[in-house]
Amino acid sequence: MNTHARTDVHRDTLHALLDQGLAAHAPEYDSGLSNHLPMVLHALQQLGAAPARLADYAAGYAVRLEPRGTRLTPALLPGWPALCGQMDAFEPLAAHFAAALAQQGREATLAQALPRLMPGVGAGAFHGLIRTAHALEAGHDGELAAGLAYWAAAWLPLRDPQAVWPAMTLALPDWLAAVQAVPPAGPLPQPRITLRLQAVAATPGFDAAASALIVDPATLRALAGHAAALYAATGNFTVLHAVTACRALAVLMPWLPEPALRTQAMRDFALALGAALHAARLTRFSPADHPPPPAPLDWPALHTAAIAASDDHTAKLVHACGQLGRRWPAPDGGIAPVWAQAATRAVLAAQAVQASG
Fold it and tell me: Which keywords are on file for this protein (predicted)?
């Protein structure tokens, strides 16, 4: 089989499994855990997993999921933003975005939706953002409608969306120091990341610090590199989400039609990422303050290990790191070591869990 035919088979298998998942599974299970299945399937397919591996992963993962509610006929809902933050509104939101994509196309739908969704970018511990980006890259409008609907239903603003933003006064190193200097007043809730994000955001002084980052077109690259280095050094589960969220925002940012909207999206994201650093229960935000990262595996080995992993996150993290490393190459044109270091941390953690089980 030639490469083009193999790619078509992989994509067709992915789309068939996404269709099955959309028909069967709710966007969350177990009182607030995100359904990772469509995201992992796309990551696996991009890493080169065979169709049989995609089907096996889907069958094994689906046993934990809950049934989807009654799907509604696609219909535009002009007042859909009023439903944001209401998980029981997932179906009408999904019907709205399905109609919008069918009638307006991806460009117009995303241009309208993303500015409204970004103030709640922490939705589902960033999984609304992440699922939407995977769906867009997968080229599957049904999954894209579900990703946008989940983001809207789980919408998680960490400041008053109507409040005036302070001036941008802090460069990234100063911003990290300022956010680190405003720790939560008490123990953070267990176990959900979203509850911890909300608790951090409610800390006096947090908003003033976390909203003051100076953002420009290079900010996302800098934040992604920092998150990857911090994850490589710590293996922290919440920081892992920061890395995959950075990739997702990099995918979606070009679909925001105006520079001012991209600037505001970056400010919304930085606020949520600052909350995530505290939600990770890290007292030090610099990778240099933690043990050195593991020696990196080569990329073929990382891909093979990620495809074999049975958890929710390893394939997504390895895929994200490889994609970001190619998006923002090192001065020599290759992939900077930090991306392989972060991917190696995820692979080694997954292998340790599988070995212990």
Answer: Oxidoreductase
pTM higher than the cut 0.70: yes
Chain position carrying tokens 């990422």: 273
Measured CA distances, 356 to 235, 349, 351, 352, 353 (Å)? 17, 11, 9, 6, 5
Strands, E, within the chain: which ranges? 28-29, 33-34
pLDDT tens, position by position, 120-134: 999 999 999 999 999
- Paired with 28 in beta bridges are 34
C-alpha closest to that of 40 among 242, 343, 314, 300 = 314
What is the SS3 assignment for 268? helix
Residues in Cβ contact with 291 at an 8 Å cutoff, skipping those fewer than 6 apart: 233
* Helix ranges (DSSP H) in 25-160: 37-47, 51-62, 90-117, 127-138, 141-153
Cα–Cα distance measured from residue 124 to residue 138, given in angstroms and rounded to the nearest whole number? 20
